[in-house]
Write a structure and sequence with these properties.
Elements lengths: L12 H6 L1 E9 L5 H11 L5 H13 L15 H6 L6 E6 L3 E7 L7 H8 L4 E7 L6 H12 L4 E7 L8 H18 L4 E5 L23 H7 L13 E2 L2 E3 L11 E5 L4 E3 L3 E5 L3 E10 L2 E3 L1 E3 L3 E6 L10 E4 L6 E11 L5 E2 L3 E6 L2 E14 L6 E3 L3 E2 L4 E13 L11 E5 L6 E7 L21
Parallel strand pairs: 1-3, 1-4, 4-5, 5-6
Antiparallel strand pairs: 2-3, 7-16, 8-9, 9-15, 10-14, 11-12, 11-16, 12-13, 12-15, 17-23, 17-25, 18-22, 19-20, 19-24, 20-21, 20-23, 24-25
Amino acid sequence: MTSTTEPTEPLSVEQLSATTLLRFATAGSVDDGKSTLVGRLLHDSKSILTDQLEAVEHASRNRGQDTPDLALLTDGLRAEREQGITIDVAYRYFATARRRFILADTPGHVQYTRNMVTGASTADLAVVLVDARNGVIEQTRRHAAVAALLRVPHVVLAVNKMDLVGYEESVFAAIAEEFTAYASELGVPEITAIPISALAGDNVVEPSANMDWYGGPTVLEHLETVPVSHDLAHCHARLPVQYVIRPQTAEHPDYRGYAGQIAAGSLRVGQQITVLPSGRTSTISGIDLLGEPVDIAWTPQSVTVLLKDDIDISRGDLIVPSKDAPATTQDVEATVCHVADEVLTVGHRVLLKHGTRTVKAIVKDIPSRLTLDDLSLHPHPGRLVANDIGRVKIRTAEPLPVDSYADSRRTGAFILIDPADGTTLTAGMVGESFAAPQPVKDESDDDGWDF
């Protein structure tokens, strides 16, 4: 690899394997500078190739710019470059000597909030950018709400374009205070505010000489040192079955394995398990990992589990420890972010995808919709439009083993799908949200429901 700055020794495989992994997402309103921040982060941390920088320089010159537009490192779509905005989620992988990173640069326009939900759903940290000239706006609140809803454990408030407000400490302090108060009310557990100029490079990788009043970490320093707790490893074990392996060859005449990626926790040979939703029980007799037998496996490894008993298991079933089995239910109450242009209404017939299982369902009630300005709840709106956040009650055609999203981000999440064309309608999180609605009397009864 050829560096764009001074040559450095590339990280060895051993060094990379010894470092931790941080998944983080950027968010913010249009023109707040997300792509420029990502480009500056990649450039100043020596994480881009010479030919990549040359391509950006060439494209920038063609657009009449004297200096490289680092936003072009992530804005890869033609429409993104023409309009100067991010439309799709751009993933970037890079590493320093202290940590490996998977970065999701998400769009800022309200039209693409669905993409922000996608990028933040697996993130350990979210960087929310704010233009220092505009302060906290509605889209900032929406992104903070989505981060809280998705239980992202760490949020960084990057107050960008400080160079355009004279690097004034009072401007930064006012924005940081307003955002921190709002995000704390949403239940965000940790908020770190950093004043930056992505264009000039202030406090992105190197400390800023223009803001000597700030004594905190740079963006990269915080990303390298923030504690990452992979809580899924400590959750109750969950294995959604993706495929049943029956080779029926001379070498393996009786082999029957249940393959999938462990969504949470760990499984071990000899463990008593229950298969849901059927409730059948057995014991793990073997675990194959990359073609080799192991005694124990944990999230997020992809494994094949063998059982002592031949029981009916198929794709969509969930293998769990018998002592930690979740309850199955046909009535799911959740907080959702509606991401489709099509309106979601009471009585809407949908498909609900949970793990590897997809079942028919009906939206039974929409108890409330969240108002982002003051976090109040509008009761019984009857519908959710694109980018609305609200509570829904769903009745499924078959029982589902669901966890609370607060306990497990993987097995407590689901999506609603339009059965007509396969469009994703809504992303849902089971259980209580950051702003649980007041109890509302459900005046409807079950008459007329198909299941």
